[in-house]
Amino acid sequence: MDLSIVIVNWNGLGVLKDCLGSIYGLAHARKFEVIVVDNDSSDESVAMVRRDFPQVRLVCNSRNLGFAAGNNRGFAVAEGRYILLLNSDTLLLPGALDESVAYLDAAPDVGVLGCRVEFPDRSFQTSCYRFTDPLVLFMVRLLPIGALAHERLNYGRYWGRRFTETTDVDCVAGCFMMVRREIIENLGGLDEDFFMYGEDEEWCDRIKRGGWRVVYFPGATIIHIHRFSSRQARRALRVIECMSPMLVLHKCRGHKAAWRANLVMLAAMLIRTPAWLAVDALHILRGNSGRGLLRSRFAALAAHIKGVFRPVWLPVKAQVPLDPNDPIIS
């Protein structure tokens, strides 16, 4: 088996069906399997997979384990020489799998491969990043450049460079992340202290420390809808997203670096809160869904304030054990 494709799903019925359709709708020269890990979806995702894609190996968790733990469940049953983490809100374009596998076969020192990623309108989407650094956060969050950054300047993301050639990078996005099986066997899978956001960066850091290269490979391309899952649970995931840089820094560089980064992000939020309040109030007056966004902002602000006194970015371990029959594999 050349490749195992692991897709973590949570209430992603529509996008998951399109993703699987894009995989099986293309001709592939490599032998592959698809493993869908369902994180206790309440929609018809599982039924759709069983009905429309019976060739898919389905892993059903009894609760939402998050992105990292969900992928690790898929890794545990994968049989391929390479493992591909693929978001459910992606579409493969022709050659994406075959070209990526061929490149890794020809480059034995590359441990992780990311590809070119595009938005649905086929515009460029950043998919490789520099490691999180308190100085970069300061430049982005507190200096005027932060207001102009985003996708255009790509702060912390190689400053807007759109690589047209294969390039060594710090980390690649988890929406398409192909790794060698020996990486998982020797260095472990994703760190399950991350529920969502930051786990790909910590893993790339660990892999590079293990002596492997991390490479951005534009010879393969996918389309990524971007943030589909996070839009479904805005308030909780806003806090998780805001805390993820500190958790990455805590894991990779220690508590002091994480604490300094939290101060930077807290200061930035305090500076920008008046503007946010004005914009959110306007949305509410117009009847848009501004209340949820406003609550999520205050939840994130409260988390940063607490972070001054204690490392709230460190997860509280779950006290409820998994069902002994979980996961169910079909």
Q: Layout of SSEs?
A:
Elements (H helix, E strand, L loop, with lengths): L2 E7 L3 H12 L7 E7 L6 H8 L4 E4 L5 H12 L4 E5 L3 E3 L3 H11 L3 E9 L5 E2 L2 E2 L4 H9 L2 H4 L1 H4 L13 E2 L2 E2 L3 E5 H7 L11 H11 L3 E12 L9 H20 L1 H31 L4 H18 L20 E2 L1
Parallel strand pairs: 1-2, 1-4, 2-3, 6-12
Antiparallel strand pairs: 3-13, 4-11, 5-12, 6-7, 6-11, 8-10, 9-12
Helix pairs in contact: 1-2, 5-11, 9-10, 10-11, 10-12, 11-12
Characterise this structure.
This protein has 330 residues and is of the alpha/beta class. It contains 12 helices and 13 strands. It has helices spanning 13-24, 45-52, 66-77, 96-106, 134-142, 145-148, 150-153, 181-187, 199-209, 234-253, 255-285, 290-307, and strands spanning 3-9, 32-38, 57-60, 82-86, 90-92, 110-118, 124-125, 128-129, 167-168, 171-172, 176-180, 213-224, 328-329. Helix 9 (199-209) packs parallel to helix 10, helix 10 runs antiparallel to helix 11 (255-285) and helix 10 runs parallel beside helix 12. It starts with a strand and ends with a strand.
